[in-house]
């Protein structure tokens, strides 16, 4: 992957980035005829797997939910101008490559597309060769940009399910933008259930989020803020070199949570972005400074939490309606969507 190139060598990109899988392309087009034609061209010879939608609203939802190799949108949509959709897609994911297609051959459309940071502009009727050449070039260039700017996220929890409850939506959002995820769970939570069962559940939850799970090997209810815990976290940080770390808040009634926080503060002292999430045991002193919109990712969070079947049957705070209500409450601080709150200890980039 490191040897892949882009731009003029887009075909090389395709062979090394997608040896077994095709490009993932989102097509936003309200004409069934054009959708069928473009889809047949793009999916020929396994070049791409196309997800087609016919409204701007659904296009925005799909664009926010995944890191697409390419987004193709018409300008004239039934509920939204394609150029307005372009701006919204770029605002949500600056690295998403967007190809605008329009039947209107005017300098105004071209200028507005450029102002909206479109990666390409084609006029109908589109030639097959022109479409495929632009698609492969733009996907290759976008992959290289993402490779250079990809984040590596380390989420730390004292027990199984802590991370999924506190920042599962944020992790799903990171993953949708192409970031790499690692969950470090410091103990197997043996006092909360059978360790073997909790191990299996934790792996299932990590798989839902497409994250790598690592165990810290510490003892439930006896996690300290001492050198032992700091060393466990430091080893992971030295190996992974994360750009973002999520951990417990100090404002928490559970001693394991507080000590995990204190140890992380020391171990992650050189990590540029450090956030503390809310737990069910957080106190009223928890004071968030950041509200992450997870409206497009709450279902992933719920599925990750549902993997902890041994806990969901006995913990009221793991009931789906409670989790939804909590996200809805915090959403009032970010445009009345659904949100996860974070205390910001350090933030050098987003």
Key structural traits:
single chain, 350 residues, alpha/beta, 13 helices, 20% strand, elongated
What does this structure look like?
With 350 residues, the chain is α/β, with parallel strands linked by helices. It has helices spanning 10-17, 32-43, 56-65, 82-92, 107-115, 128-149, 162-176, 195-208, 227-240, 255-267, 298-306, 309-312, 320-331, and strands spanning 23-28, 48-53, 70-74, 98-102, 120-123, 152-157, 180-187, 212-218, 244-248, 273-277, 290-293, 339-347. The chain folds into two domains: 7-148, 3-Layer(aba) Sandwich (Rossmann fold), CATH 3.40.50; 151-347, LmbE-like (Rossmann fold), CATH 3.40.50.10320. The strands form two sheets. A seven-stranded mixed beta sheet has the order 8-7-6-9-10-12-11, with helices on both faces. A five-stranded parallel beta sheet has the order 2-1-3-4-5, with helices on both faces. Helix 4 links the parallel strand 3 (70-74) and strand 4 (98-102). Helix 1 (10-17) crosses helix 6 and helix 9 (227-240) crosses helix 10. The longest helix is centred in the middle third of the chain and has 22 residues, at 128-149. The two termini are 25 Å apart. Mean pLDDT is 89; it is low at 1-21.
């Amino acid at each position: 992957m490191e040897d892949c190139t882009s731009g003029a060598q887009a075909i090389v990109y395709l062979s090394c980035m997608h040896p077994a899988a095709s490009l993932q392309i989102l097509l936003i087009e309200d004409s069934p005829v054009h959708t069928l034609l473009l889809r047949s061209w793009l999916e020929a010879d396994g070049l791409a797997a196309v997800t087609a939608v016919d409204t701007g609203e659904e296009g925005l939802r799909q664009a926010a939910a995944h890191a697409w190799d390419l987004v193709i949108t018409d300008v004239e949509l039934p509920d939204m101008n394609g150029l307005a959709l372009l701006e919204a897609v770029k605002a949500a994911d600056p690295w998403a490559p967007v190809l605008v297609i329009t039947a209107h051959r005017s300098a105004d459309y071209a200028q507005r597309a450029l102002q909206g940071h479109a990666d390409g502009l084609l006029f109908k009727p589109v030639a097959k060769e022109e479409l495929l050449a632009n698609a492969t070039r733009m996907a290759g260039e976008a992959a290289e940009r993402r490779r250079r700017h990809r984040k590596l996220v380390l989420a730390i929890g004292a027990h199984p399910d802590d991370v999924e409850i506190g920042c599962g939506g944020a992790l799903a959002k990171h993953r949708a933008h192409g970031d790499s995820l690692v969950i470090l769970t410091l103990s197997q939570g043996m006092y909360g259930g059978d360790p073997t069962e909790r191990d299996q559940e934790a792996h299932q939850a990590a798989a839902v989020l497409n994250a790598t799970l690592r165990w810290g090997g510490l003892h439930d209810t006896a996690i300290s803020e001492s050198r032992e815990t700091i060393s466990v976290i430091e080893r992971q940080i030295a190996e992974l070199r994360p750009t973002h770390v999520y951990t417990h808040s100090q404002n928490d009634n559970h001693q394991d949570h507080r000590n995990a926080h204190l140890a992380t503060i020391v171990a992650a002292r050189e990590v540029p972005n450090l956030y503390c999430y809310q737990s069910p045991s957080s106190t009223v002193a928890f004071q968030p400074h950041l509200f992450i919109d997870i409206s497009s990712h709450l279902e992933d969070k719920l599925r990750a939490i549902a993997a902890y079947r041994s806990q969901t049957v006995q913990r009221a705070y793991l009931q789906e309606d409670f989790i939804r209500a909590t996200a809805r409450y915090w959403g009032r601080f970010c445009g009345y969507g659904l949100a996860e709150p974070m205390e910001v200890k350090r933030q050098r980039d987003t």
